[in-house]
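Dear all,

This email documents one entry for the complex benchmark we are building for the journal club exercise. For each entry we list the sequence lines for every component of the assembly. Then comes the predicted three-dimensional structure of the complex as a token string, followed by one or two observations. Please use this as the template for your own entries, and keep the labels exactly as they appear.
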Amino acid sequence: MHIRKIHSKKYYNDSLISIRVERGEIVFKPGQHFSLSIKNKFVNREYSTFSSKDSKYIEFLIKIVTDGIVSNQIKELVEGDEIFLHGPFGKFLDLESGDYNNLILISSGSGVAPFRSLAVSENITNFKLIHGIRKKEDIIDDGSFDKGTVTYCVSGDNEHNYFNGRVTKYLEETSDDIFSNNNLYFICGNKDMIADVYKILIEKHKISSDKIDSETFF
Amino acid sequence: MKITITYPPLMNEFGQKAMVSQNRNVQYFKKPTYLLPVVHAQAASILKENNFDVIWDDANSQLKDYAKWLIDLKDYSPNLIVLESTTPVMKAMWEASKDIRKILPESIIVMTGYHSMRSPHETLLNSEVDIVIKSNHVDFILLKLCKKLEKDKDLGNLELDGITKKVNGDISDYGKFQLVEKIDDSAIVDRDLIQWKNYAYENGNFLRTPGTYATSVIRDCYFGKCTFCRYNGPDLTFSAMTIKKSVDEYEKLINEHGVKEIFDDSGVWYRGKEAISFAKEIIKRGLHKRGCYFGINTRFEYLDETTIEWLAKANFRFILIGLESGSNYSLDMLNKGYTAEGIKQNLMHMSKHGLHPHLTIMVGYYWETKEMLNDTIRLVKELMFKGYARTLQVTLCTPLDFTPYHQEVIKSGKILTKNYNDHDMSKIIVETPESHDVYYEAVKEIYSIAFHPKFIIRQIIFLFRFNIRDWEFLFTYGIRAIRRVRQHIFNLTKNSTKKTNPLSKKLS
């Protein structure tokens, strides 16, 4: 277990924050997650890293869930408060498993976290991020994905210049050249979105299931 | 098309039957424990819903011997026979497939289970199995398989994601199965089809009977990273059932079948707001006042006190929870993601609100020193004497089904056998820092807690809370547990070179 103090906290909107702690001796790979818990609360939840593996700090993107237990505890933390980290765990975004032409990264909500961690950690340009959000204000536009291409799918408001609808609608309708068994597909977000995306990729676009991996956020 | 999902009765040299225990781990017992294989029961149910002719043939729960099992199978003459196996009974299942082939040369034999799904070629090469299903979503893939075979019976033409097949000695692989269906799209277990009463009484987890297993709300695990657990691997896909669908089933089980205890054997049940919503829905429908207890598996640090309080209000009782070690080093090595302090605090909350936590303890890791073992014994004693946990079981950590722990011991050369039969959890099969007797003695010491005056006094103190479940626990469950302790100690220490059993006088 690693005990860390909150270095800083950032609010993106009412329901999305990030927290930053010193990385110290911790080594992780993009796509891995930690179990986070607050001192003396004895309840934990898993959060993927949001930052570069080489950064001085580890950053986590936290969706504040209505009636959620740990996310609301984290929201109450202030700089200097202690947080417990167990991990890192997992092998999501393991790129050593095979050759590929392009990485197609499909996410919704805070599911973008591991993809940002990958984009700012590794020197890769052949990726496309397809990210689903409810409002355009939910876009985290800090240049992290500038090396690749990004499509934002905004489903909860019409006043924007992005794709209008969910990522599943985009995948059904797009004429972009992103469907090939030479690509690798990574999906991260809520379980229903993941199931729907699998269905579209496998059944409609005939992508081999060996080319798809996912990480469920709850 | 006729399909049989079948479990042959397998017996060891001590005359004990292979029984599945928690999460499909096979252990041999003389006294029966009949656990419903839920996903396979869903598979049978979804096939029936799709108008296939399905026979549920669990020879253990139906009290058949091997000869009777074969005779019945021949009488059924199914087109497709589905077996399930795990490491310790792998060889026995290969032999069973050969016996099936002799009597039913035309039937297609399908193997499922976590061992063969991770090493399909091995099974195809060593048995008469035709198809290995490489997914735990046996219901969805079997349905697809049967629909394809119904259209074209020629195995040579069969192509399907998630299977490896053997035709005329040639093995073909069709990649991994990826779940595109939602778990809500599977079937709720058809209780008549699987003859639910066969599983309703001989199960040590039930305080009241008839009890039953719910259709699991979670397939795989929220966490899925514990190194020893089979719910850990890139081949698994987490999925969860909606609360309404599950509570609908509970309502039906209580109203139509008169069930008195329902256990959900999901690797890890709902947590957080889903768990609270479930409890509220149970209360809203009045199911908490119908004399039926509810039970679940969970992880430490997944349920906070508020959630636990809601579960208690909804008449949850039995909480099965893995306490793999009292040593923080071991917990780290196993990727548990919490510490011994978290274990204590969580159990304290459960006990405070009247739940009955049941600990599943493990000893015998390849790194486990005497000091680590003592940490476990100390912690377990503290928890049991303080009443933070009510019952326990101890298992010897046994590498199974190519989990990360299994692969670690193979890679490091710590495994002491290549015989899968030795993986039956009856002995330690890895090189350890201490002599194996040290771990067997630890097993005896932990089980002997049940007879310690401090533990017994604690149970009597519980009676003064005047909660009916505590009285039931002492007079019903207590007697049943004592009956089983003797068997467990025999099973887990029969390979000890120290033959004196400190409990032998008390138990004989």
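Observations: The longest strand of chain A covers residues 2-13. The mean pLDDT of chain A is 93.
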